[in-house]
Amino acid sequence: MEYDKLISTIKEYGRLAHPRVELYEFCRQHVEQILKFVPQTVLCRDFGDAINCILNGFPDNSDTNSKIKSQIVDLILQTLRKESVSLTHCSEMCGRICVEFPKLPVDDIVRWVNESIESIIQDNDVNITWKYVIPECFNALSEHETIKHCGSDLTVAEFKDQCVQTLYQYKWLEKQLVPMAAMFKYIQLSRNDHKKFVNKFCSYINDLAPDDIPPLIHQMLRLCRLYDFDIVLAHLNHYFSVRLYTKLEPPPQDSESTTIDLDDIASHSAEDISRCLSTCIFHFTRGAADPEIIRKHLKNWPKTQLLRSPFIIDLAMAMSEKGGDFKTVCLNLVKSAIEQRTMDELRARESAWVRAVLPPDVDVVSLLKVLTTESKNHRQLTVAGLINLAFLLLSVSRVKPLASTCWSHGKLILVRLSKAQPETAPFILQQLTDKLCTETALRQYAECLYVLCKLTPVSVERCPQLSMILENCQPSPAGYKAHAAILDAVHPLFNFSTRIRDTLVLVCRKGLYSRDSQHRCLALAGFLSVLRNVRVNAPGSSSQTCSDLHSGHSYLTQLTVDLHTTQNGAAVTSRVRNEAMCMEVVSILRRCLVQDALVKQLLYSQLYDCAKDKPMLHETILELFHDHLVKYLHEDVTAGSLLIDKCVQVNGVNVVLTEPIGQLLFAVAQFLQTTEIEDLEDILSSQTVETGHAYLKSKLNRVMEQLCDADSFFDIDMEEANLSDLTPESKAKSLKVQQTLHCYEALIAHTVMQWTLTSEDAATKLYKLFKACNKLLEQTKVLPKSSKKGNKSLNETRETVKSQKSQKSQKEKGKAPVKLSNLVKDKAGPFKPLPCLWNPGFCQKIIELLYSDEVSWASLEQRNQIRARRDFHMWALRSVQSVLLTDNIDKKDVATHVVRIATLLYNKAVVRFQNMCGFDDQVALTCLEVFKTCLTLLFSPLYMLKMDCFLSII
Asked: What is the pTM of this model?
């Protein structure tokens, strides 16, 4: 009978509608033909129905049929081992014949196991049928107690153990690894055998091509569902550490290394290995591995070894997105390892013994650079985890000694991700927005925003979250300074992003009209940031600039400055736009002069630093200051006195400072000092026409000189100071005295700033102002003359004595009424002057005057005249000390002026301490105190300065 007819007849009889008896009879009559055509049937397309009907045609009720079935299965296996078919074809065929194994003779099953193992060893099974056959044969044999093998009776367990050992001892081929791992997951192994096989599989990883590793790992993860999962992790960690992570680290700088090591010539590129790593992480997180097992092993991974295992950290970052529990365990695992390493480094700096005991470890910064660099190849599997880790590091409490280092690591991660993967910037800024709106400790987040704007401006500028941060910036009850740092953090974008500049200006403009003083201060801080950081190129004269800007567009009209605006038919340049904006910002700041003292103090203390390198603004600022200062001058211009009473307002029992006049005078003094740019302007300008800038400087200089020359520019009755009383009058007088002392400090600063080589009486004038200031300060400490005559106690005044007598007489009469005046006339603490109003720049100038060998702006005679005054030394040093102890010193000032002060004091007071003691003991000790304060600032974690840079200078 022909093949086609035979198969069609078998299929027809094999249908369910026909009785099986006809199929049995037909197969029994045509056994030889069936056996002949089995190999051909196996390779045909519709093999499934044909083989199924053939096997169903021999019932299981006789040994003869079992032998025939064994022959059919044997033929099928032989055919599949020799002829290549599709994977699906082979899988379905093997699946069908494996169903018959429990019904077939044991000897045949043992033989098929041996043949399969032999085909593995000889590598002659083209379809790898043994991965299906061996597990099913072992399952079929498990129903029997003993078998006969090679003439010996063995238990099934012994036979299985022999087969497993044979497979273990054989050296596998690379192409057999994946099917072998797939096979063993269906074979029940003892713990010891399982561990041996897992180790053997992992031993091949180093020799495999990168593309061959992920399939093997996929099967290994399924094989190690219960145990030995840590072995796979360890081998993969070693593989990627050697092949990938170490290659990404920057090589050590060695000028003598000019040759290429042969070991560096790899057969596979970093891109191939990186792709392999990404696929492996995918299998771990979204493949066959049980997430709970991964979390368990990550949690138990040694903390001291974690930073040496970048693969484990990558895996932890990927697993952190599996849920809240996973996020907590995985991120805290990495965070705690970084904190422990940081603490070890801090202890190593303090102790040589710790440095000797601690083993060398990895550099955390280099590790984070490697992880962020590699993350772009991970198909977004680890990016979210790295971002969350960065913010977890930023959340470290500032009271911890390792806070600044952890913050630095967090900022490093975010900056590198934002720069290398711009699509991550919106997610970073969104989390940053949440932190800035909800957290109370904002310093590290504001610094993070600044670093992102500075180092990745293109990535963050286009994000709408940046405008949201500016619009939601509101002061907290604790103050406005932390939020002012947020507004200032975006200043790197000012010079190329009109959108950010517009948003900030509109937000600050709205805040400047707020009823709350803190909101107004925050708005002013934003305007000052714009003024400070907008670049303006070298201009012409001030008058020329003003005339050029006359027809410019208003920046404050709710309309954005158009980049293509034209002026007089020509394109408006960036310099002209920036100058116009700065001029109108200054005009807006005029409103600050009618607000409360807190706003004015901020304006006076910051305006010079913001505008000192923009001479085109000085005329407008000087005019603003002049118009405001004349309100507090006596009508007689030659009187040289200030109306201190107008600076303080008394409303019932409330006393309010309305004008910080000392800060105003110091701001004026700063703008009156001559700079190199202005000197060049004066040389280039016409000698016959006095500019508006020069005219205003001349008028203000006359005012300042009259105040300096006046015997007393204030009208405060110091005969009966009463500064310690709680009456409104005493409070008002205390505020007036504080402002007067500030005025003296400002005038002293003006005298020093105007000191030149041609000055003849500068030292005398300076010492005179100091003596007047010191006299006023001493008057706040002693009792008035009238109180001494009456032998009254230290805190008594005339009013309190009368009140006490009245109360005593009333008590004798049996009456003791309580009067409001008696309650008010209580005693407060002793009078305390305000901290010195100087800035670090002037502190450096005054220290140079007293202790520097090279003072280019003062003659030797005048310098020596003031240097001989011991009392002036003490007062100047105490003033500098009070400035350095304030909490608002800028990092730039610390890195420049404070370093210079420390250098001068070190050379004159520390190195030559005996000579300084010979001059004056108290001056020497005060110099040491100021030097110590300088070092405290330089070593403060608040500024995070590099010690090596400034210690070499000192």
From this structure: 0.83
